[in-house]
Every structure is written in C-alpha cells, then in structure tokens.
C-alpha cells in the first residue's frame, strides 16, 4: 500500500515537472517569436535619406530667395512623446499658417508635398484630438501637406477602401505625388517619424502601444501607410468590395506584392504610435472569401471603378472635407 502511494506520488511529481517544463518551453518560444516581430526588418537609419521619395505639387510656388528645407535633424531626433502626454483637449490650439487643412513652411522650400487621407464616420471625439495633434506634429516637419477628411455620410456598412479611393482621386487631381493613408485613431509618438513617402510603399505604424509595440505580422499595411500616387495608381488602389471591418488592407498588401513592390519600414524606435480607444466596427465575415476571389480582379476592381455620390466638398480651416454616400 505504502509502496503504491509512493509510486503515485513520484508519478504526480513527474507529470507536474513535465507540465512546468512544457510551459517554460512555450514561454521561451513565444519570447523569441515576439522578439522577431519587435525588431522587425526595416531600413537602417543610415540608409533612410537615400530611400526617401522627394517631390512637390506643381502648385507650390518655391522661392529662389529661400533655401531648401532640411530633414536630417528631424530624422535624427531622439525626442518621443508618451501616450499619457497627449492632451485630451486643445483649448489653446493655434492654426497659424493652416488653410483648407494645408500648410507649407515659410522659411524654406519644402522637398515633399504629402496628402494625408483620413477616412471617417462618427468619431468626433477622436477627430477633436487627431486634428490639432497632427497639425502641431506636421508643422514641425518642414513639409508641405494637406489633410483630406473623407466622410461616409450614409448608414451603409463602413467601406474604408472605397473612401480611400475617393480621397486618392481628389489628392491625385491636386497633383500630390505622395499619399499617406491614416487611421483617425492613431497618433505618432517619435519626432523622427518623418511624414513622407519612400521610393517603395512604407508602412508607418509598425509599433503601436495597443499591440505592445509588436508588429503583428510582416505583411501588415493597415493603420498608417505612405505610398507614392503613381504606385497607388499602379495597384489600382483598394478593392471596393470590403464592407465592415477587416481585409481591405491585407488585400492591398496582395496588390502591392503582385506589382513587385516591397513594403519598407522605419526602425521601431521611429515608428511608435498610440491608439485612441474606440468601439470596434462589426467584422466582415466574408473577408477571407473576398480576398481569395480578388486575386484575379485587381485591374477591374479598385480606384478605376469606385462609384459614389458626392455630397459636399468643402474646405475648412483644419481639413478639406469630402462627404460622400456610397
Ligand atoms: C487582420 C485583418 C486586417 C487588420 C489586422 C490588424 O487580421 O484587416 O488584422 O487589425 N485582416 C483580416 O481580417 C483578413 S488590428 O489588430 O489592428 O485591429 O488590419
């Protein structure tokens, strides 16, 4: 009797030791997986300048009396903000120099013109933080930029891809050579995160506080993405078929890969963002199916086939409003 209870006890100890060893192994493996995505592949700091894509709109009058703007100090800045430093209210915000959501530095000729496209519906409290924060941020970057807010006016399911296509049409008509597709709930934290395009598409929001600053997967392009206008045309923009949450960005990543473009990123300590809290949009249960069907239809479904009703295009001080019904 005593012998068998001793045997049971030894067995129990062995089983629990095995469980502990397995759990430790899983933790170590997870640590290394996370580490890989934490230190995701990126363009080294020293090579960034060569990979930036310069270009301004022909409408921007540059003056010979002024020097070209410089960007080295911005790229080398070590200054980062913490998410808890971000004001929740901007009572003393000054829109100096901003007109129709657009700004250009006065002291020098910028080398970059950037259209920032923000898709929007019913997120007033986030917009109230986003606009002053981004204008304060962008005015320090020596770039010429313009914020377009593309608002879905109808009650139909949310369609971010279509809204980006509509915004891109306006920005391309305004001859912006670079588009930054920007979620309204994301705010950059590192001052070295220069808001410009690179020669290849650039995923900017690689390191978000909500995801413990880990890049969740290599082909992620959602959040904030910078893309040259000619590349947006080349991939035919987003598919118009994704309603609700999810899939449209992964589909865009497929389009980018199919046109043999790669996705570049700045180093992690230049790509940190904070995400403003919000209720998630309802997920699109069809998204995987649409993605697999879409691979054959890039040239028919996208920027060249977006159909919408324009409700209002109205310049406001902090943004150019494009209200549409889909
Ligand atoms: C993927 C979604 C993407 C989304 C990404 C990150 O699963 O649209 O998660 O989402 N793809 C599909 O659903 C097919 S996030 O964690 O940022 O909310 O962007």
Automatic annotation (TrEMBL):
<dbReference type="Pfam" id="PF13733">
    <property type="entry name" value="Glyco_transf_7N"/>
</dbReference>
<keyword id="KW-1133">Transmembrane helix</keyword>
<comment type="pathway">
    <text>Protein modification; protein glycosylation.</text>
</comment>
<keyword id="KW-0479">Metal-binding</keyword>
<protein>
    <recommendedName>
        <fullName>Beta-1,4-N-acetylgalactosaminyltransferase</fullName>
        <ecNumber>2.4.1.-</ecNumber>
    </recommendedName>
</protein>
<keyword id="KW-0325">Glycoprotein</keyword>
<keyword id="KW-0735">Signal-anchor</keyword>
<keyword id="KW-0472">Membrane</keyword>
<dbReference type="InterPro" id="IPR027791">
    <property type="entry name" value="Galactosyl_T_C"/>
</dbReference>
<comment type="similarity">
    <text>Belongs to the glycosyltransferase 7 family.</text>
</comment>
<feature type="transmembrane region" description="Helical">
    <location>
        <begin position="12"/>
        <end position="33"/>
    </location>
</feature>
<dbReference type="Pfam" id="PF02709">
    <property type="entry name" value="Glyco_transf_7C"/>
</dbReference>
<feature type="domain" description="Galactosyltransferase C-terminal">
    <location>
        <begin position="202"/>
        <end position="279"/>
    </location>
</feature>
<feature type="domain" description="Galactosyltransferase N-terminal">
    <location>
        <begin position="99"/>
        <end position="197"/>
    </location>
</feature>
<keyword id="KW-0808">Transferase</keyword>
<dbReference type="InterPro" id="IPR003859">
    <property type="entry name" value="Galactosyl_T"/>
</dbReference>
<keyword id="KW-0812">Transmembrane</keyword>
<keyword id="KW-0328">Glycosyltransferase</keyword>
<dbReference type="InterPro" id="IPR027995">
    <property type="entry name" value="Galactosyl_T_N"/>
</dbReference>
<comment type="function">
    <text>Catalyzes the transfer of galactose onto proteins or lipids.</text>
</comment>
<keyword id="KW-0464">Manganese</keyword>
<dbReference type="InterPro" id="IPR029044">
    <property type="entry name" value="Nucleotide-diphossugar_trans"/>
</dbReference>
């Amino acid at each position: 009797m005593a012998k068998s209870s001793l045997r049971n006890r030894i067995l129990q100890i062995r089983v629990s030791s095995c469980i502990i060893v397995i759990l430790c192994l899983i933790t170590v493996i997870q640590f290394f997986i996370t580490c890989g995505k934490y230190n995701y592949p990126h363009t080294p700091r020293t090579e960034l300048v060569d990979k930036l894509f310069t270009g301004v709109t022909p409408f921007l009058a540059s003056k010979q009396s002024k020097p070209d703007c410089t960007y080295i100090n911005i790229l080398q800045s070590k200054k980062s903000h913490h998410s808890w430093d971000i004001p929740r209210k901007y009572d003393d915000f000054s829109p100096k120099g901003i007109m129709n959501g657009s700004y250009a530095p006065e002291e020098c000729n910028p080398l970059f013109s950037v259209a920032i496209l923000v898709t929007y519906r019913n997120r007033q409290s986030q917009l109230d933080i986003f606009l002053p924060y981004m204008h304060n941020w962008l005015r320090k970057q020596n770039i010429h930029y313009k914020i377009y807010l593309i608002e879905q006016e109808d009650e139909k399911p949310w369609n971010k891809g279509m809204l980006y296509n509509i915004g891109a049409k306006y920005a391309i008509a305004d001859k912006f050579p670079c588009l930054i597709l920007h979620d309204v709930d994301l705010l950059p934290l590192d001052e070295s995160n220069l808001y410009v395009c690179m020669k290849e598409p650039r995923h900017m929001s690689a390191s978000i506080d909500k995801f413990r600053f880990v890049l969740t997967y290599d082909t992620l392009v959602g959040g904030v993405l910078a893309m040259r206008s000619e590349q947006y045309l080349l991939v035919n923009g987003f598919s118009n078929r994704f309603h609700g949450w999810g899939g449209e960005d992964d589909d865009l990543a497929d389009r980018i890969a199919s046109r043999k473009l790669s996705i570049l990123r700045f180093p992690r300590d230049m790509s940190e963002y904070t995400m403003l809290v919000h209720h998630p949009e309802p997920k699109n249960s069809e998204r995987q199916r649409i993605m697999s069907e879409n691979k054959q239809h890039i040239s028919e479904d996208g920027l060249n086939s977006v159909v919408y009703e324009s409700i209002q295009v109205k310049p406001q001080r902090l943004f150019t409003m494009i209200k549409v019904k889909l």
